[in-house]
Design a protein that fits this description.
With about 180 residues, the protein is an alpha+beta fold. It has helices at about 10-20, 40-45, 65-75, 105-120, 150-155, 160-175; strands at about 5-10, 25-35, 55-60, 85, 90, 95-100, 135, 140. The chain has a single domain, classed as Peptide Methionine Sulfoxide Reductase, Chain A, CATH 3.30.1060.10. The chain has a six-stranded mixed β-sheet, covered by helices on one side. Strands 4-5 form a two-stranded antiparallel sheet. Helix 4 links the parallel strand 6 (about 95-100) and strand 7. The chain is globular.
């Protein structure tokens, strides 16, 4: 039986590529959450007018990978202290967000963020306060197929090389015990 986590930390191409590296992750789908427009397009979301965040839905095997493991990776591959910005991507659609699916996820992420904040994990950052939005998932809108597995389909894309590749490497290095074994 799989469980689902919905996370936003900048461009969904980068977050998707990083989570696909983890053993126990069965599927990662790029899409949108947290907005007020039904079935938004990529262009609408990029305009910042729909209220959506670019997110990924991570389907995972909880016997192989805990929700806390996903949160650990999530909070290490993006900057949760910047409001509406990740790297070169600026706007509310790139906000740091965790959309929980049930009360257990809500309590877990709230406790996790509290512990990170109390542990001084981000004290060296310009803004050391975690600004990650924590909200219930209302509706997830799947992005068009061309946005799915974007990093794998476009390895020579300069955006992927400069922004997704470092996140992929970070997961493979810092979370080697949780990373799926490469077929290379």
């Amino acid at each position: 039986m799989t469980e689902t986590a919905t996370l936003g930390g900048g461009c969904f191409w980068c977050i998707e590529a990083a989570f696909e590296q983890l053993d126990g992750v069965e599927d990662v789908t790029s899409g949108y959450a947290g907005g007020h427009v039904d079935d938004p397009t990529y262009r609408q979301v990029c305009s910042g007018s729909t209220g959506h965040a670019e997110v990924v839905q991570v389907e995972y095997d909880p016997d192989a990978l805990a929700y806390e493991d996903l949160l650990e990776v999530f909070f290490r591959i993006h900057d949760p202290t910047t409001k509406d910005k990740q790297g070169p991507d600026i706007g509310s659609q790139y906000r740091s967000a965790v959309y929980y699916h049930d009360e257990d996820q809500k309590e877990t992420v709230e406790r996790f963020v509290h512990n990170l904040q109390q542990g001084g994990e981000f004290d060296s950052y310009e803004n050391d306060e975690i600004v990650t939005e924590i909200a219930p998932l209302d509706t997830f809108w799947r992005a068009k197929e061309k946005h799915q597995n974007y990093y794998d389909k476009n390895p020579n894309d300069r955006y992927c090389q400069f922004h997704a590749e470092p996140k992929v490497k970070k997961v493979r290095e810092q979370f080697a015990s949780k990373a799926a074994q490469s077929d290379d």
